[in-house]
Design a protein that fits this description.
By secondary structure, this protein is an alpha/beta fold. 33% of the residues lie in helices and 29% in strands. It contains 6 helices and 15 strands. Bound molecules: 1-O-pyrophosphono-5-O-phosphono-alpha-D-ribofuranose and uracil.
Length: 209
Amino acid sequence: MGDQVFVSTHPLVQHKLALLRSNLTEPKKFRELVREIAQLIFYEATEDLSLAPLTVQTPLAPCEGFEVADRIGVIPILRAGLGMSEAIIDILPTVHVWHLGLYRDHETLQPVTYYNKLPSEPNIDLSLIVDPMLATGGSAVAAVDILKQWGARRIKFLGLIASPEGVQALTAAHPDVDIHLAAIDRFLNERGYIVPGLGDAGDRQFGTG
Ligand code: PRP
Ligand code: URA
């Protein structure tokens, strides 16, 4: 595994990940867990953000502090990335969220773009693509291609579970993109599902399928 791939070893992430995977976890609890793990992965993936000094007034005195200086764009891949982007904008309300609609064709497993809400100018310092599942890697590679064509320079991918094949595909296509995950699983099955994985992340969040 290259030095651009970061798999969380945090006990809270691993504890919540096991609950997320369980087929006893119903959609309401599943969405809550996606949200909590996304915030923890976001925390780990943003330790290199730039800060700018600022002064606030406490009830007692002025106090020197900091604010995040980087302008951050969060790009959820629809549908399953939605739960992650909502969690991130709650913890850092200054981020901009731009939706990207990609789905995998069930026959070919190739990504199909159906929605793109990127603004005309890439007026941000850091783009975070969020999608719980990195399976064949096709969707993530396509999302990075779109962002690079748009002009984004610093890009990270934040996911929950990846297959070794997906990590390989994304690192080979885009070696400059850091990948932050909660787990890399055993393999991808013949239908393109990560094993053991958690099933279909979109269906499990939204009660479909
Ligand atoms: C899932 C998932 C990723 C993609 C990963 O989305 O959320 O976007 O598959 O697979 P890949 O790495 O092989 O491209 P899906 O196509 O099921 O769409 P949905 O989120 O709308 O259900
Ligand atoms: N998309 C999912 O939601 N789950 C997988 O295992 C693979 C792709």
